[in-house]
Amino acid sequence: xxxxxxxxxxxxxxxxxxxxxxxxxxxxxxxxxxxxxxxxxxxxxxxxxxxxxxxxxxxxxxxxxxxxxxxxxxxxxxxxxxxxxxxxxxxxxxxxxxxxxxxxxxxxxxxxxxxxxxxxxxxxxxxxxxxxxxxxxxxxxxxxxxxxxxxxxxxxxxxxxxxxxxxxxxxxxxxxxxxxxxxxxxxxxxxxxxxxxxxxxxxxxxxxxxxxxxxxxxxxxxxxxxxxxxxxxxxxxxxxxxxxxxxxxxxxxxxxxxxxxxxxxxxxxxxxxxxxxxxxxxxxxxxxxxxxxxxxxxxxxxxxxxxxxxxxxxxxxxxxxxxxxxxxxxxxxxxxxxxxxxxxxx
Amino acid sequence: xxxxxxxxxxxxxxxxxxxxxxxxxxxxxxxxxxxxxxxxxxxxxxxxxxxxxxxxxxxxxxxxxxxxxxxxxxxxxxxxxxxxxxxxxxxxxxxxxxxxxxxxxxxxxxxxxxxxxxxxxxxxxxxxxxxxxxxxxxxxxxxxxxxxxxxxxxxxxxxxxxxxxxxxxxxxxxxxxxxxxxxxxxxxxxxxxxxxxxxxxxxxxxxxxxxxxxxxxxxxxxxxxxxxxxxxxxxxxxxxxxxxxxxxxxxxxxxxxxxxxxxxxxxxxxxxxxxxxxxxxxxxxxxxxxxxxxxxxxxxxxxxxxxxxxxxxxxxxxxxxxxxxxxxxxxxxxxxxxxxxxxxxxxxxxxxxxxx
Lengths: 346, 356
Known about the structure:
The structure holds 2 protein chains of 2 kinds.
Chain A: H1 2-14, E1 18-26, E2 29-35, H2 44-47, E3 50-53, E4 62-67, E5 70-75, E6 85-88, E7 95-97, E8 109-113, E9 118-120, E10 125-130, E11 144-148, E12 165-166, E13 172-176, H3 179-182, H4 187-192, E14 201-206, E15 222-229, E16 242-244, E17 254-257, H5 264-267, E18 271-273, E19 278-282, E20 288-293, E21 300-307, E22 338-345
Parallel strand pairs in A: 9-15
Antiparallel strand pairs in A: 1-2, 2-5, 3-6, 4-5, 6-7, 8-10, 10-13, 11-14, 12-13, 14-15, 16-17, 17-20, 18-21, 19-20, 21-22
Chain B: H1 2-20, E1 29-31, E2 41-43, E3 48-53, E4 58-63, E5 76-77, H2 80-87, E6 95-102, E7 109-115, E8 122-128, E9 134-136, E10 142-148, E11 162-169, E12 172-178, E13 185-191, E14 201-206, E15 219-227, E16 230-237, E17 241-246, E18 255-257, E19 259-263, E20 270-278, E21 281-288, E22 293-297, E23 314-315, E24 318-321, E25 327-332, E26 337-344, E27 347-354
């Protein structure tokens, strides 16, 4: 306190005006009002003007400036709404900007994909869709549980990546089943057995304590029941797809029925109808993709371009199963990046 | 006397070589590096710091200008998370320390941080000097070069393209990664200085020659390593097989089969690997999610028989260091100490610890 008073006295001596000094915060900057400063005082050391959070005396990063005799401090980062800031300079009362804990949250898990109640026992990925952007913390792994019908938790079912796989908006989280538990003959599979056993019932539970981007927990925990079905080890065969061709002059949708569920996230962006603007939609159970043109179809042959990155739920690709018995069924390496499926519009 | 002359001659030759070699920062431009996420870090030559930017799908090389040699010191910051949060004007639960790197010359520690959570998170690069002072390395006005990671040529996907590790060796930046939609693990080898025309090789890695089956499980951590005068990377994966891959095999379009030389136990994810020598004997220190810190005997790694059948813990021997608790990151510091970030939800400490 004495040090501060001394500093204040020094400052008062060294400045022209020392009437009622105060600090204000406006337009992203803290300003000292009622005291004139020289340009060389534009630093914490030379002015004693410090902005810090309530939790620490260490100053926050930012830049000082003296403009027309007025000392300003512009924090490097925008003030966080839930943090209390203290701005102080000897000779004036501290300016306190109180933080407010935001109350209530709308965040919840709205959907899990695959949406089918039965998923293959060699399922590779689950997608969780949240109603609001989430925090993306690495400790989320402790808040995700897979339990069987007896309530017994599965042992390390998912790959606990240091940076969990969120989409850019932090509204979709990808859970990867540990691939070592799926591949037959690989050590984790041999040691621990597969995560999902055909015929068994499971529940995926996401704790309420998973926080949204504002730090609030979810409205409620998420529970989703499913049954592990037969393993899917077939490659994707576009020749088996049922194509419902639209009629020319109409805006009827092009409908591709895969006859089996495919990967939800990839379905969203692997298809393109060459030269035709429109909107793609994923059908129920992820077994179908529909394309709605934004203008009527023209007659003739059109091309559906499919990115070879397309996978089913178990990681099987076009002509390339995920887990192959290489002794009995050698697979050809597919090197093309797209596959073209022609269709007629009459 | 003769020896002294020879030494002088060598010095002269070396001096000439240094004089003609262009510094690694040649050809860099100054401006906004447009780093969207500050992720994995690795130092290259001449104070160049590589930043793995998963969200920006790029590797950025930044000229830190931090090339003044410093006597090796020590780091000891209790509550580094709180210190960083205070400087960034936020609360500790709103920051994530993504990675650390020690500048091999100055011994200053660089820390990549995400401020805020979710879509509004900001990428921040910090420098911790030997006096414990924290400062920001501004990335919006910096001398840098960058290279976009090769993406499928068809269309832009919404994927984070997570970079799991970045390392530099012999003019090459090695980047392991995983994309969230397509299930594939890959390793990119990018020549440095970055050439705009050459985006490096995209290489799929196969590990675990367990009988007949291949797997695409993601590399979680790796270190460049010389075995019998040949440059390898030593990579570790979830459930902890240790795999060696010759760097010379990492060519564009090549399909590499790694050689599994150790199985270090299931139910575990390796976090970081640091190679070092103590008493003339080589070791690798590994931090793990479940197994704590392990010290791997790295001598004669060329002599281990490849593990090609399902087996219990086997191959290269290692010991578990029971005293090293809650270690989140391990990074090389100097030839006597390793940099350790450890702690739990109540706080994180950053310190140098004597190599075991």
